[in-house]
Amino acid sequence: MIKLGTRGSKLALAQSTQVAEALTRATGQRVELVEIVTAGDRSHAPVAQLGVGVFVSALRDALLAKEVHFAVHSYKDLPTAPADGLVIAAVPPRADSRDALVARDGATLADLGTGATIGTGAVRRIAQLHALRRGFTPVPIRGNVDTRIRKVAAGELDAVVLARAGIARLGRADEITETLDPLTMLPAPAQGALAVECRIDDAETVAFLAALDDEYTRAAVVAERTLLAELEAGCSAPVAALAEVAEGDDGPEIYLRGAVFSPDGSNTIRLSRTGTLADPAEVGRALARDLREEGADQLMGDQE
Ligand SMILES: NCc1[nH]cc(CCC(=O)O)c1CC(=O)O
User: Fold this and answer.
1) I need a surface site. Which of 58, 121, 215, 217 has the fewest CB within 10 A?
2) What are phi and psi of 197, to 5 degrees?
């Protein structure tokens, strides 16, 4: 039996269970889930105040203390700096990376009128909603996926925007009323991807977990997160990125789109780049340089 450390939230349990089952299918290894309470689960403060690493650090402590063999994170919630002594041993095939709208009566963004209240806590999503110039009223919310969707059913909000992958992992994809095209709502770097982490010196677990790794997903996530890191921005920053791997003339290549937003959505810089699958980090670095040349720092620094 090897031990998988997981948060106790429904979403964390759903994705940990899915990874555990995939590992058992691939290797025959049985996996025991061990629940770990993080500071982020105990607190009701806005995530922006808690800081990026709050959901992650308790899991990493448990790994380093050898209480568990590995942990599964939502990749987009990981700080961009690597953790000492740990390694992302597998990046499983990515789920849908797009954002999704949940509204009443099947409503899409096109159906929602001026003043429609749309719940989301992410600056990235708020800025892109404003940028549509439809007079929407983004409403900051927090809480788990179920809580957020309930506010729509209860009439407290007209709609919420959430990651499609999270809704789907909870088995509620049929409640999505519109999956948002990346042209309208470019997702967060690494959205929909999972990071499977273990101790770097635990060769046996590293070898086991390799069975779950998906080369294209890993390359995409490296490109997106290198862009984020190069812009010196965290997971709550107004930065969006999506890398896709497509067949080029000389084999597979990476197509990386990136965008930065002023917090009120009045200004956006969107650019893209292609590069070789062999060096996804370079694609991220190059796009970060391009965005900087267009004034990304000033745009994002324009916070207040
Ligand atoms: N920021 C919270 C968060 N972290 C991971 C997911 C689920 C989707 C994913 O794994 O990317 C969500 C919910 C959301 O953004 O709607």
Assistant:
1) 215
2) -115, 145
CA gap 90, 218 in Å, rounded: 8
Ligand 1 centroid – CA 251 distance (Å): 32
Least Cα distance to 107 among 49, 177, 194, 200 occurs for: 177
Phi, psi (rounded to 5 degrees) for 161: -110, 130
Ligand 1 contact, 166 CB (< 6 A): yes
Instruction: Annotate 137-160 with DSSP letters as a single string.
Output: EEE---S-HHHHHHHHHTTS-SEE
Positions of E strands within 164-238: 178-179, 194-199
Q: What angle do CA 150, 152, 153 make, to 5 degrees?
A: 65
247, 259 in Cβ contact below 8 A?
no
Q: How many residues does the chain have?
A: 304
Tracing tokens 């620094």 back to the chain, one arrives at: 301
Percent of the chain scoring above 70 in pLDDT: 92
Q: How far is CA 147 from CA 121, 157, 161, 261, 288, in A?
A: 13, 12, 13, 27, 35
Cα separation of 232 and 228, whole Å? 6
In this structure, which topology does domain 2-92+193-213 adopt according to CATH?
Answer: D-Maltodextrin-Binding Protein; domain 2 (3.40.190)
Q: Where in the chain is the domain with CATH 3.40.190.10?
A: 2-92+193-213, 99-179
Q: Specify whether 77 is catalytic.
A: yes
pLDDT of residue 121: 82
Q: Is any ligand 1 atom within 6 A of the Cβ of residue 76?
A: yes
Q: Is 283 left (phi over 0), alpha (psi -120 to 50) or beta?
A: alpha
**pLDDT tens digits along 207-256:** 999 999 999 999 999 999 999 999 986 556 789 999 999 988 888 999 99
Q: Which of 13, 15, 55, 77 to mutate to test the pocket of ligand 1 (most atoms within 8 A of CB)?
A: 77
